[in-house]
């Protein structure tokens, strides 16, 4: 059960809440489907300022941070925006904009920012906001690495141990995540894992002399939010954490992001956070093809595809541009085209590591074939621990090239 923290020092003056702390409180709403309708998704939708107001209100209420008198006044009001609570939330929204975390925009006929009613305003996350969310996701996932080893692997080549050399030191932001498990556990075990802090992490220093090009393939087919579970938000958090890790700790590396669904397209990291699920099938072949095109432009020691998905290939782009779809089982036509793209990856020296959020037998068989063909690895995981798997796999691959 998640712990609820009461921020009593902010009672009566919520608009004094620090912007970075507020961003931390609403990060799941910003990254997730909370600002989209999962039953009628619009992949082109942009969140509005009203959505942001609701996200802040919900975050404050969940943490019991709203003083009793403000809460009662808001519950009795016809429009919460006209209450003292609503006015404080409006000031918090203004502060997010002033501090550079969001950019308010109005739609007009020319597609440029213009004037309009408050309810018509949309907002975009800024580069500062994306960097903050990536850093926060990375820190959260780092904490998970200290709690347990990401085992339960299903394929032959994965090893949770990492061969490293060098002196031990306490982790500082910007260091490589070569965690020394024994020393880290020694710092944490006496006080409990729920008290884990960044200062408890101990790393073993190592020297790297390799570079890698990575393309992250994110499945945004409709199944990623069906069955009562949001799998897409954790996938985006992992992608942002990986981007931050590579930018700050592996400056010679590159990472690009591809969304695959009925077709596939590259998205910049600045647009990744607010990408949405659509009513799509799964065009794995299209995603692999685009990933190969992006990797061919890179001159790196290692080229790899990190594919995060929860379903079998069910769509294919035909030579004339039409989309062929079959959601029932592994269609031989779709499967054959997908495996041809996997074979192309092998011939190009591209490793495909698959992080699978489902376990049905047909899917397991398909993923094993992909892994065997490219000498990659397959991980069958859950939305709760996928970040540990992805980051440990990436760091392990890097540490194998230690000097």
Q: Would you spell out the secondary-structure blueprint of this structure?
A:
Blueprint: H1 19-25, H2 27-31, H3 49-62, H4 68-76, H5 84-98, E1 102-105, E2 122-125, H6 127-145, E3 168-170, H7 181-188, E4 202-204, E5 212-219, H8 232-249, E6 254-260, E7 264-267, H9 269-272, H10 284-296, E8 302-309, E9 315-317, E10 323-325, H11 332-347, E11 350-356, H12 361-374, E12 378-380, H13 386-399
Parallel strand pairs: 5-6, 5-8, 8-11, 11-12
Antiparallel strand pairs: 1-2, 3-4, 6-7, 9-10
Helix pairs in contact: 3-5, 6-8, 6-13, 8-13, 10-11, 11-12
Domain VWFA: 211-394
Protein name: VWFA domain-containing protein
InterPro entries: VWF_A, vWFA_dom_sf
Could you describe the 3D structure shown?
Helix content is 39%, strand content 14%. Helix 3 (49-62) crosses helix 5. The strands form 4 sheets. Strands 7-6-5-8-11-12 form a 6-stranded mixed beta sheet, with helices on both faces. By secondary structure, it is α/β, with parallel strands linked by helices. It has helices at residues 19-25, 27-31, 49-62, 68-76, 84-98, 127-145, 181-188, 232-249, 269-272, 284-296, 332-347, 361-374, 386-399; strands at 102-105, 122-125, 168-170, 202-204, 212-219, 254-260, 264-267, 302-309, 315-317, 323-325, 350-356, 378-380. Residues 211-394 form the VWFA domain. InterPro entries: VWF_A, vWFA_dom_sf. It comes from Deinococcus carri.
